[in-house]
Amino acid sequence: MKATVPITVASLKVACSQCNLVELCLPFGMSESEIDRLDELVGARRKIKRQQHLYRAGDPFEAIYAIRAGSFKTDVLLEDGREQVTGFQMTGEMLGLDGISTEAHSCNAIALEDSEVCVIAYSKLEELSRVVEGLQLQFHKVMSREIVRDHGVMTLLGSMRAEERLAAFLLNMSQRFTARGFSPAEFHLRMTREEIGSYLGLKLETVSRAFSKFQDEGLIAVQQKHIRILDITGLKRLIQHPSPSPRP
Amino acid sequence: MKATVPITVASLKVACSQCNLVELCLPFGMSESEIDRLDELVGARRKIKRQQHLYRAGDPFEAIYAIRAGSFKTDVLLEDGREQVTGFQMTGEMLGLDGISTEAHSCNAIALEDSEVCVIAYSKLEELSRVVEGLQLQFHKVMSREIVRDHGVMTLLGSMRAEERLAAFLLNMSQRFTARGFSPAEFHLRMTREEIGSYLGLKLETVSRAFSKFQDEGLIAVQQKHIRILDITGLKRLIQHPSPSPRP
DNA sequence: ATGGACCGTTGATCCACGTCAACCACAAAA
DNA sequence: TTTTGTGGTTGACGTGGATCAACGGTCCAT
């Protein structure tokens, strides 16, 4: 991995206190004086072009990353070549937490569009979180949230049918776009049908068919990657009681 | 929740430094002097009878737990009554990490047999991990390991077929029993077929059939909950290339 | 011992989703 | 403009695992 980052305007620091993502990112819930101290933590920023890796499974773990702009997917690939998307990440979300346990990354992080991340050296994070209580608390919450999120995906994969999964996915995207100040009802997906399918444990054809079905039923309007949610309560209803047999 | 613990022999502290689980539990990798300081962290122990809850989804989060004896399952239940097992935990493993993010537990933890846990007050853990570096590092690794484990389950649920899932489950159990000094090839499952199925995203009948099939093929010997692995490489082969089409 | 829950096994049938295949839309390259 | 490639849609068909159902084994509590 070519680690040398050219000293350009792009790699100049931007204080967390100045960043409009505080509400979503690591600093959330920290006091102003605590956030000021974060500025010594967040080093260079790094730009990643669409389809490029931020890190690969097996890379030595040195830093975690906060997404400043753009979006990513993480995936693992099994020995036999099968690939599974384990998550999609948006601005303000953290990448790389999986690497702490073995000191090597356990998945690949790939940009879905031209993106930019803040690089947070893990050794510095540990050091600083020993003295800044709010940082320690926040960091633990971020990790814990990741665990809870993964449990959510496990229940989705373990107990939902195709259309429920896609409905849950759309509602989740909607909610995350909303939190970032975008429309809850209209957004642009950055990932392909195949990536959505991999994430949801479905084949791309099944994803495509479910999109079409939702459209026929007037729940959404789909045009390629552009989604418009027309009936949010209808989508919610879908995931609440399974299609056949309204409770045994 | 009746929180008062009677002062009995059972609740007396047992130093981590004296515990035979150090290799598996939170203290792993810490220096002796650091482990000694853990003793101020680990408060009362708590006994949980089979089928009883250690905590429930929604309970306020105050402590994490290290399993001293016995085993647990964690599960979440969806609005419509469906239930999903998110994990099985054995001695030395930690419970309750999901509670940090929202300060309330997000799943239920239920003993699969009469069990005992060490109660680790979270506020104390935060405090101590600010001064004991090894504890901080270890705790972060434990959380990260949970994330990696969850990703493993996600790939299992998202891309494996029934028999592969069960094979992976058995190999995982075998490996964990081995790490605890038990036989890699012969062990007693504490959970029902239904719980295994819920964890693996399968119905109990499918689990049962897969067990029978493995037995017919000479891979394992099953007698109710007692499992003997006869051909471990055969099981491993199962999860490496999918049944039909040996790679496209 | 004995009745009753609970748990596990096995068979028959069904259907949701995967598979295979053809075709279309759009974007970048030539 | 045409060409080429990637991503998306749709149809026809097959199948893995769910569902429904019957029965057997084990462990308790009486």
UniProtKB/TrEMBL annotation, chains A, B:
Keyword GTP-binding: no
CDD domains from the UniProt entry: CAP_ED (cd00038), HTH_CRP (cd00092)
Superkingdom: Bacteria
Gene3D superfamilies found in the cross-reference section: Jelly Rolls (2.60.120.10), Winged helix-like DNA-binding domain superfamily/Winged helix DNA-binding domain (1.10.10.10)
Assigned keywords, A-Z: DNA-binding, Transcription, Transcription regulation
SMART domains: cNMP, HTH_CRP
The protein, known as: Fumarate/nitrate reduction transcriptional regulator Fnr
Native species: Aromatoleum toluvorans
Taxonomic classification: Bacteria, Pseudomonadati, Pseudomonadota, Betaproteobacteria, Rhodocyclales
Gene: fnr
